Automatic annotation (TrEMBL):
GO biological process: bacteriocin transport
Region feature (Disordered): 144-189
GO molecular function: toxin transmembrane transporter activity
Tree of life domain: Bacteria
One Pfam family recorded for the sequence: TolA
Species whose genome carries this gene: Photobacterium swingsii
Lineage per the UniProt record: Bacteria, Pseudomonadati, Pseudomonadota, Gammaproteobacteria, Vibrionales
GO cellular component, one term: membrane
Comp. bias regions, Basic and acidic residues: 147-189
Protein name (database record): Cell envelope integrity protein TolA
Length: 340
C-alpha cells in the first residue's frame, strides 16, 4: 500500500514537471511567432522611424510583459508545483500516518482480539473449572451422603449385631445356668439314686436275711406246731375265732399305712394347675424295711403319673409296721394319687 502511494506521488510530480516544460516551450514559440510577425511588418512598413521606434518600444514592452507574464506563470507553476509537492508530501505523510494508524489500529485490534480471546479463554477456563468444581462438589456431596448413609447403616447393623450378641450371650448364660442346674440336679439324682440303690441293696440284703430268719422261724414254728398238735387239738375252735380278728387287724393296718404312703407322695408332688381333677395309680414294690425297690405307672393321666413317680422316688423309703403279715401286704401295694 505504501509503495503504491509513493508511485502515485512520483507520477503526479512528473506530470507537473512535464506541464511546466510544455508551458515554457509554448511561451517560446509564441514569442518567436510574434517576433517574426513584427519583423515582417517592419520590413513591410519602412516609412517612419519614430513609428518604428514606437513599434519596437511596444514590442519590447510586449516582450517584457510576456516575459513577466511567463515568469509569473512559471512562478505560479512552481508555486503550484511546490504546493502540489507539499500536498503530495502531506498526502504521503497523511497516508503514512493513516497507514501507521491503521497498522497501530490493526496491531491494537490484534492485541485486543488476543486479549479478548485470552479473556474469553480465561472465562471459559474459569467456567470449565467452576463446572468441574461444581461437578466435583456434587460428586463429593453425593459420596458424603452415601458415606453417611453407609455409616448410619453400619452403625445400625452394629447396634443390632450388639443386641443380637447380648441376646445370645444372655441365652448362653441362661443355657449354661440351666445346664449347671440340670447337671446339679443330675448329680443330685445320681447321688440320690446311688443312695437309693445302696439302700435298696441294703434293704434287699435285710429282706433276704429277714426272709431267711422268717423261714427258719417258720420252720421252727412248724416243728413246734407239729410237736404240739396233739396237745392243742382241743383248742382249734378258739384258734379259728382268733384268726378272723387277726385278718381284720391286718386289713386295717394295710389301709392305714396306704393312707400314710399316699400322703407322703402327695407332699413331695410338684403340683400343677392342670392336675386338678385328675388321678394316677402307682404300683410300688418295697423292701421289708420300706425301701423303694420299684415304682411303675398303673393307669391315669400320664403327666400326673410322671410327677407322682418322681415324688415316689424322692420319698425313696416309707415307714413300715412291726407286724410281719402287714409288712408282707405292704411290700407290693397299689396307690391312687389325686392332687387336692
Amino acid at each position: 500500500m505504501r509503495n503504491n502511494n509513493y508511485s502515485v506521488a512520483v507520477i503526479v510530480s512528473l506530470l507537473l514537471h512535464a506541464l511546466l516544460l510544455v508551458a515554457l516551450l509554448w511561451g517560446a514559440d509564441f514569442s518567436m511567432s510574434k517576433s517574426k510577425q513584427s519583423g515582417n511588418t517592419i520590413q513591410a512598413v519602412v516609412v517612419d522611424p519614430a513609428l518604428v521606434n514606437q513599434q519596437a518600444q511596444r514590442i519590447r514592452q510586449e516582450r517584457e510583459s510576456a516575459k513577466k507574464a511567463e515568469r509569473d506563470r512559471l512562478r505560479r507553476l512552481e508555486q503550484q508545483a511546490e504546493e502540489l509537492e507539499k500536498q503530495r508530501q502531506a498526502e504521503e505523510k497523511r497516508i503514512r500516518e493513516l497507514k501507521a494508524n491503521k497498522l497501530k489500529a490493526e496491531k491494537e485490534a490484534r492485541l485486543a482480539e488476543k486479549e479478548r480471546q485470552r479473556v474469553a479463554a480465561e472465562k471459559q477456563k474459569v467456567a470449565e473449572e467452576k463446572r468441574k468444581a461444581d461437578a466435583a462438589a456434587k460428586v463429593a456431596k453425593a459420596q458424603a451422603a452415601k458415606a453417611e448413609a453407609e455409616r448410619k447403616s453400619k452403625q445400625e447393623a452394629a447396634r443390632k449385631a450388639e443386641q443380637e450378641r447380648q441376646r445370645k450371650v444372655e441365652q448362653q448364660r441362661k443355657a449354661e445356668e440351666a445346664a449347671r442346674k440340670a447337671e446339679e440336679a443330675r448329680k443330685a439324682k445320681v447321688a440320690e439314686q446311688k443312695r437309693a440303690e445302696a439302700a435298696a441293696k441294703k434293704a434287699e440284703k435285710a429282706r433276704i436275711e429277714a426272709e431267711r430268719k422268717a423261714a427258719e422261724a417258720k420252720e421252727l414254728q412248724r416243728q413246734q406246731e407239729a410237736a404240739l398238735n396233739d396237745m392243742f387239738a382241743g383248742l382249734e375252735a378258739e384258734t379259728e375265732q382268733r384268726g378272723g380278728a387277726r385278718g381284720q387287724f391286718v386289713s386295717d393296718e394295710v389301709a392305714r399305712y396306704s393312707a400314710i404312703f399316699t400322703q407322703m407322695i402327695q407332699q413331695n408332688l410338684l403340683v400343677d394347675q392342670s392336675f386338678s381333677g385328675k388321678e394316677c395309680v402307682i404300683r410300688m414294690r418295697l423292701s421289708a424295711n420300706g425301701l423303694l425297690l420299684d415304682a411303675t405307672e398303673d393307669g391315669g393321666e400320664r403327666t400326673l403319673c410322671r410327677a407322682a413317680k418322681a415324688a415316689v422316688v424322692k420319698v425313696s423309703q416309707f415307714p413300715m409296721p412291726e407286724d410281719p403279715e402287714v409288712i408282707e401286704k405292704l411290700r407290693a401295694i397299689r396307690l391312687t394319687v389325686s392332687p387336692e
